[in-house]
Design goal:
single chain; 219 residues; alpha+beta; Muramoyl-pentapeptide Carboxypeptidase, domain 2; five-stranded mixed sheet; 7 strands; binds zinc ion
């Protein structure tokens, strides 16, 4: 084999490795950051998938705090959370649905701000302990159909009452079916449900990650 062909072979091997990597559907956020991105890096999910719907409630005053606590509506999560939820969303999309986000990673300073407004551990996690949202492993979500309409989950997001619980039984068949679908696919993809909130899911492998105060830039 001539040097030329050896080089060509090497080059092909290199590019086939690169293309295999891209086949995972999880491209690096940017070439510049490629070397420093790992599973616990905070990333903007929009850089990894165009297939989600967003209604970031805390970037508006349409939430139980009646206060806008984020400067802009972005969904940042640790990369491993992004990978897991992209897999879950692919399952929902085959069934004609998509995940809609209400909240994602929440920097600790934002948690403190929320705690100042509502200092009640039944509604807001005490920033002294931190929540999985502060660890980049929790998502608040629902499902929308092909027209963008939310599936009926029995209560709105952040409804603080027994009706929002997975254990509450006085719900229509339709609501039970919708919650069951959300829970089944999320738990099959590495997430735990949270008994009192049908919309909240924790990535199991993120429970021991550190609380963070990393912030994203707003335009
Ligand atoms: Zn939550």
């Amino acid at each position: 084999m001539t040097f030329y062909f050896k080089s060509l072979l090497l080059l092909c091997t290199f590019f086939s490795v690169v293309s295999c990597k891209s086949q995972t559907g999880i491209p690096a956020a940017s070439a510049e950051n490629q070397s420093i991105v790992n599973d616990t890096t905070f990333v903007n999910i929009k850089d990894y998938s165009p297939d989600f719907v967003y209604d970031m409630k805390y970037a508006t005053s349409d939430n139980f705090l009646k206060a806008k606590v984020y400067d802009c509506a972005e969904c940042f999560l640790r990369l491993k959370t992004v990978k897991a939820i992209i897999k879950a969303n692919a399952v929902f999309m085959k069934k004609g649905y998509k995940i809609k986000f209400f909240d994602c990673y929440r920097p600790l300073d934002i948690q403190k701000k929320m705690w100042q407004i509502v200092s009640n551990p039944s509604y807001v996690a005490d920033p002294a302990k931190g929540s999985i949202h502060n660890r980049g492993g929790a998502v608040d979500i629902t499902l929308v159909d092909s027209t963008g309409k939310e599936l009926d989950m029995g209560t709105p997001f952040d409804h603080f009452g027994i009706e929002a619980s997975h254990n509450y039984d006085q719900l229509s068949k339709e609501v039970k079916k919708n919650r069951k679908l959300l829970k089944k696919v999320m738990t099959q993809n590495g997430f735990n449900s949270f008994d009192s909130e049908w919309w909240h899911y924790n990535l199991k492998s993120a429970l021991t990650d550190k609380v963070s105060n990393t912030k994203w830039k707003c335009d």
